[in-house]
Amino acid sequence: MKNHSFSNILALIFSLSVCSQNKDESLFIEKNKIEIGATPSESVLKIALSFIETPYVASTLEINETEQLVCNLQGLDCFTFDENILALYLTKKANSSSYSDFQDNLTQLRYRNNKIEGYASRLHYFTEWVRQAEKNGWIKDITLEIGGEVTAKEVHFMSENQKLYPKITDEKTLETIIKNENKINKKPLSQIDKTKVAAIESQIKEGDFIAMTSTIKNMDCNHVGMAILQNGRIHLLHASSSLKKVVISEKPLTEYLKENKKDAGIMVLRVL
Predict the structure, then answer these.
(1) Which residues, listed in sequence order, are joined to residue 230 by a DSSP beta bridge?
(2) Rounded CA gap, 110 and 123, in Å?
(3) Which of 8, 37, 88, 217 has its Cβ near the most Cβ atoms within 10 Å?
(4) 208, 202 Cβ separation under 8 angstroms
């Protein structure tokens, strides 16, 4: 009787998993029908706006015991919001309607050298995510071009705060994390200080990805989203942890930054 009950539970879990996967594929098909705009920026913005009111869900990539690709269009955190938008755009740009192609694009965005080889192969630091996407020719970091400056900050947050990352369970994973941090630190981080964002606001375009750099020791970015114009001002379209859904910030970006003590400034990334 107990074995029978356990089998029923496993069958239910599998059924729910399949239903969730089917729902995500259906959402992909729906969003793949969005007509791309005249420019890449216009296109990604149209895709991003289709996610308005989508629930914010934290730790969506931590659901499996072993590292594997997670496709979740039903609930997003700030990082997966930007990531899914770009993967959807790349799929549409290639004139593909294949869910498998979307998954391939997501893998190429999320994992170092496009390979899933355990937890440490995921691009955990947004800076490294940006650099790989830039290397692949998908985005351009224009932070320095529009008034940004290099900083002396380095990233060591994951290796120095292992208790916050339960999947760093062995020395090999930790060593790989440290190796990747050291590689990131070979190139200086850059930002536009939040006190200077107002002066360069006119150079930010709708559809640019915006990353909030961090005041927290050894962390590169706190939060990411997308630029959108509202009444002539740049606002933030993002998956909000406080409002628990994808929203457009009530206040312009400059005011939003002033109210967030953890934000040091921004990086600005343009889709190519």
Answers:
(1) 233
(2) 6
(3) 88
(4) no
Give the CA distances from residue 203 to residues 134, 162, 208, in Å, rounded to whole numbers and listed in that order. 20, 39, 10
CA distance 33 to 142: 30
Which domain does 191 fall in, by range? 2-271
pTM listed for this prediction: 0.91
Burial of 87 (0-12, 13-18, 19+ CB in 10 A): buried
Residues 210, 224: contact at Cβ < 8 Å?
yes
Read off the CATH number of the domain in which 250 is found. 1.10.3670.10
Contact present, 128 and 121 (Cβ < 8 Å): no
Looking at the 3D structure of the chain, how many domains does it have? 1
Task: Write the CA distances from 61 to 17, 35, 67, 76, 122, integer angstroms.
Answer: 14, 29, 9, 10, 10
Alpha-carbon gap, residue 58 to 200, rounded angstroms: 32
Give the residue carrying structure tokens 């938008």: 85
Distances (CA, A) of 165 to 59, 69, 130, 169, 202: 11, 18, 22, 9, 39
Neighbours of 146 (CB within 10 A): 16
Residue 75: how many CB atoms within 10 A of its CB? 16
Which backbone phi and psi does 105 adopt, to 5 degrees? Answer: -65, -40
Distance CA 133, CA 210 (A): 14
Q: What sign for the dihedral angle of Cα 89, 71, 118, 129?
A: positive
How is residue 264 annotated by DSSP?
A: E
The whole-angstrom separation of Cα 191 and Cα 194 is: 9
Contact criterion met (CB below 8 Å) for 99 and 158 = no
43-81 tens-digit pLDDT: 999 999 999 999 999 999 999 999 999 999 999 999 999
